[in-house]
Write a structure and sequence with these properties.
The chain has two domains: about 1-75 and about 390-425, Urease, subunit C, domain 1 (Roll), CATH 2.30.40; about 75-380, TIM Barrel (Alpha-Beta Barrel). By secondary structure, the chain is α/β, with parallel strands linked by helices. It has helices at about 1-10, 100-110, 115-130, 150-160, 180-195, 215-230, 250-260, 280-290, 300-305, 320-325, 350-360, 375-380, 405-410, 440, and strands at about 15-25, 40-50, 50-55, 70-75, 75-80, 135-140, 165-175, 200, 235-240, 265-270, 295, 330-335, 400, 420, 425. The chain is globular and about 70 Å long. The protein is built from 14 helices and 15 strands.
Length: about 450
């Protein structure tokens, strides 16, 4: 791959990449060649002035670096992360690995946050995502203190600083009942003033995702009204448990339809859907399709966190009904979620890892079908970024180049030797060193 990097770097602004493969589902319109049994098409790709100029039939180009049949993907899109609380594990680990343990550890650590602390950890994660090739991220920001919105201050600075490298969006996150009263209005104003998305978790403060409380629907309607008054989109943490009483998803969909809500709604997690009775699950999926919801799945975090009981092997994967949702026409994405915090001890802001592990956990294969979009074009659409996540002429040549040819080659290795192109140029960036965080965290190895 070093030879490929050198050849591209020497090629100037305009050049061909010969003999590339890509999932045909990532190419809108007609594929530039025959599609094989793995859903891959082989072609030549033209780059001019930092943009994709053409996808041409294999053999069109007579010069330029060859990928030797290796794959090319558009820069991935990470539609659900938590950058302001990333990497706090060394300070406050989740000793039980449980959801309640995560809530407790995060709340303890959050009490000591400063702008400088948030910014250092937040930017470290952006550096990692950038080095791995991610082009857009939506992060949920801890919004428990609407009168001192530190995470939102940091977000605005970093969004401006990283403009042109990563398209950065933000959504609020706080329990639903925190949007009641004056503080809820202040928080919604902060989101609107920051160009953000209004988000919450479908539980009350101090609780977990279980049976819906009696006040759930009035609080939900009030939450919708805050978004409607400000023209905001919604991004919600929903039913993040294995409790059959966690049935917020269907109520969100029905509320959106009843109110005629026009803006985009993304719902994350939705774990309990997979343990509901079949009839109720079908009704929920139908409601999601009618409401036009998008679902985003966090397979690594949910498999790590859900159904964790000391001394007992987990009985389920903690994830939602992705295949059934997708079959009903509901857009489904995958994303990183938490990284090295009490909700997930691991992760590196690498969407190639996320897609690889999602394929294994969720069985997104045999056939692969259009699941490659789940890490690219589908989350981009949910974020309103219509030109990202596709291989199409006219879009920026922000690409990932792999030596791997087929899908098992791609998904069997971490692809740490990938070549990342930004505006057609080889990106000279490496994932940051964890030691860069030692002074901020006040700790050693995590």
């Amino acid at each position: 791959m070093d030879r490929l990097r050198q050849a591209i770097s020497a090629g100037g602004q305009d050049y061909w990449l010969r003999d590339a493969r890509a999932p045909a589902t990532l190419i809108p319109g007609e594929a530039p060649g025959p599609v094989d049994g793995q859903g891959l098409v082989r072609f030549d790709l033209r780059i001019e002035q930092g943009r994709i100029a053409a996808l041409a039939p294999l053999g069109t180009a007579t010069e330029g670096p060859s990928l030797d049949g290796g794959q090319v993907w558009p820069g991935p899109v990470d539609g659900h992360t938590h950058l302001d609380k990333g990497h706090i594990w060394p300070r406050h680990a989740n000793e039980t690995g449980s959801f309640h343990g995560a809530l407790t550890a995060c709340a303890t650590d959050r009490g000591g946050w400063t702008d400088a602390d948030i910014e250092a950890r937040f930017e470290w994660s952006l550096r990692a995502a950038h080095a791995h090739g991610t082009v857009a991220i939506r992060t949920h920001l801890e919004s428990y203190a609407p009168r001192d919105p530190a995470s939102w201050r940091v977000f605005r600075r970093l969004r401006d600083r990283w403009a042109g490298r990563i398209a950065l969006q933000a959504s609020s996150i706080a329990p639903l009942d925190r949007f009641a009263g004056e503080d809820g209005g202040l928080l919604a104003d902060t989101v609107a003033d920051s160009g953000g998305v209004l988000g919450m978790v479908t539980r009350l403060a101090g609780g977990v995702h279980d049976r819906l409380p009696d006040e759930f629907q009035p609080l939900l309607d009030h939450f919708f009204s805050l978004a409607e008054a400000r023209g905001l989109e919604l991004d919600l943490h929903v039913d993040e448990s294995g409790e059959s009483g966690a049935r917020a998803l269907i109520e969100i969909a029905r509320t959106a339809v009843r109110r005629g809500f026009k803006n985009r709604i993304q719902c994350g997690h939705c774990c309990s859907l997979s343990i509901q009775p079949e009839e109720f699950a079908r009704a929920t999926i139908e409601a999601c399709a009618e409401a036009g919801l998008s679902i985003i799945v966090l397979p690594m975090c949910n498999m790590y966190l859900q159904d964790r009981v000391p001394g007992r092997t987990p009985r389920w994967r903690g994830v939602t009904l992705v295949h059934e949702l997708r079959a009903a026409g509901v857009p489904v994405s995958v994303a990183s979620d938490n990284t090295r915090d009490p909700f997930y001890a691991y992760g590196d802001m690498d969407m190639v890892e996320v897609y690889r592990e999602a394929t294994r956990i969720l069985q997104l294969d045999h056939p692969v079908g259009d699941w490659p979009r789940a890490a690219a074009a589908t989350p981009a659409a949910a974020m309103g970024l219509q030109d990202k996540g596709w291989l199409k002429p006219g879009t920026a040549a922000d690409l990932l180049l792999f030596r791997a040819r087929g899908m098992t080659e791609l998904l069997s290795r971490p692809q740490a030797d990938r070549v990342v192109l930004r505006n057609g140029k080889v990106l000279d960036a490496e994932p940051p060193d964890y030691r860069d965080l030692d002074a901020v965290l006040g700790t050693g190895p995590g």
